[in-house]
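Lab channel / #folding
Pinned by the channel admin:
"Please post every new chain as: sequence first, then the structure tokens as a reply. Keep commentary short and put observations after the output so the thread stays searchable."

First post following the new format, from NK:
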Amino acid sequence: MPQTELFLIFTERLETATTPYMVSGSVASIIYGEPRLTNDIDIILHITSGDVSRLTKAFPATDFYCPPEEVMVIEARRKQRGHFNLIHHDTGHKADIYLYGEHPLHAWGFANRRRIYVGDEKSLWVAPPEYVILRKLEYFKEGGSEKHIGDIRGMLEISGDAIDRTILNHWIPKLALTDAWVVINKA
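Reply from TO:
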């Protein structure tokens, strides 16, 4: 089973619960770039505090660690950086859930997300490659991890023709990522 399919245990339940989402992070960079191992999936959810009960029903305690509803309500009310985790008991796979909030990049990403097919019939919503690159630049700027540099370079190498540089050129200065972008473009 390809690694991406392992994470359908999260996205299929979000689809059933009709919860708007998009996959980002390392799983998205694998889809657009080079394969590498990862044990988690980054998912951006577009929910309000009123949607939380649907999530607890979609991720029952018998199969998943899901934080208490009160915690998810608090996180859903944050204007920026709302976050919690879901963990599948049988596999140990983790979903890092980031909430839409009021970040303009999330709004752009959701408006441009893509339905990607995994195998013959299964699919998931994935953030556009430009969004993934911008978020990885932010993570690199915050933590300095070289894995983000490798992921971005792999995406540019594999999916370079499908990546809209004008979008990157628009967002990079807005998000104060120019120095990080310079690192990517060094030989």
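NK: The first strand starts at residue 21 and ends at 24.
TO: also worth noting, The CA atoms of residues 75 and 82 lie 5 Å apart.
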